[in-house]
Amino acid sequence: xxxxxxxxxxxxxxxxxxxxxxxxxxxxxxxxxxxxxxxxxxxxxxxxxxxxxxxxxxxxxxxxxxxxxxxxxxxxxxxxxxxxxxxxxxxxxxxxxxxxxxxxxxxxxxxxxxxxxxxxxxxxxxxxxxxxxxxxxxxxxxxxxxxxxxxxxxxxxxxxxxxxxxxxxxxxxxxxxxxxxxxxxxxxxxxxxxxxxxxxxxxxxxxxxxxxxxxxxxxxxxxxxxxxxxxxxxxxxxxxxxxxxxxxxxxxxxxxxxxxxxxxxxxxxxxxxxxxxxxxxxxxxxxxxxxxxxxxxxxxxxxxxxxxxxxxxxxxxxxxxxxxxxxxxxxxxx
Length: 334
Ligand SMILES: NC(=O)c1ccc[n+]([C@@H]2O[C@H](COP(=O)([O-])OP(=O)(O)OC[C@H]3O[C@@H](n4cnc5c(N)ncnc54)[C@H](O)[C@@H]3O)[C@@H](O)[C@H]2O)c1
Fold this sequence. Notes:
Blueprint: E1 14-18, H1 23-34, E2 39-44, E3 60-64, H2 70-77, E4 83-86, H3 93-98, H4 100-120, E5 125-131, H5 132-135, H6 156-175, E6 179-184, E7 187-188, H7 200-209, E8 214-217, E9 223-224, E10 227-228, H8 229-241, E11 249-252, E12 258-259, H9 260-270, E13 277-280, H10 296-302, H11 310-323, H12 325-331
Parallel strand pairs: 1-2, 1-4, 2-3, 4-5, 5-6, 6-11, 7-10, 8-13
Antiparallel strand pairs: 9-12
Helix pairs in contact: 1-8, 2-4, 4-6, 7-9, 7-11
The structure holds nicotinamide-adenine-dinucleotide (NAD).
């Protein structure tokens, strides 16, 4: 069955999105604004996002500030949000290995603070952005099912993403806060600006459009469950309104896996890049050969159904790169 796409529940509501200037957040905010929310409040410190990429609409309010800053938190919670989507994070694995203390501050303390403020207002839902790559380990069975998590993880980011779930569960258990843990798998799409700590897809496009070889960290046979951001946004919107999701962790993936080498070849073909690929050393924390979600639970509880095929999603990313190339060239940092 096709997913519900109306989402009239968001009409005339106040929605707070932390990290709303980021890749997933900017897409989510644009969508909620289109659904005629009264206010979509973005709280983002722009530590990993750019002004030009902040979504704009009459009902979007951008507040530049950190989830660690009480004054900013008081300011946004004064608006009494009906829904909170907590997407702000120190992103991601390599960044956390290089900066483990900031990672713990933002993803750990920041999440705790956000939950404390959320608990003071009567929210319909708090949706927390967790990570499939974060919570499943080498011993988890593929495809990853929600109960099969690991406590033997490989980066501080994975540790703090899991920690976030432990905190949301604690607020659910002790205070009945209506939380949902959304476990994303390798999200990609328009809105993700390439950079040193960004995901492979925007970086491959950036290098390919600069005529460079695409570096593969490993043997290229590794697989990932790349999921188009619009499918993630639909899943998040469902998590906000389906009561069956309260207190649950749910995978949001594509339920399909693709090899890194095939991604590289597709990007080179789309961008007419003749430079090819090169193999470089695997990063020592990058130990998972395969990432693949089971999306059965999300299908059952949310009617979730990812719709964008990988090749089509990549074409959309390419179009977005072409449209925004000047800004991307100016801001991408490596
Ligand atoms: N993109 C993925 O593949 C993926 C996979 C699993 C989980 N996630 C999670 O989803 C969420 C969104 O991911 P994304 O890809 O959009 O990442 P992103 O880095 O584009 O977005 C995160 C946003 O948080 C902001 N931010 C960072 N520290 C902050 C702070 N202290 N206060 C306020 N804002 C702050 C950044 O400026 C950025 O705009 C994150 O929580 C991430 O851990 C993403």
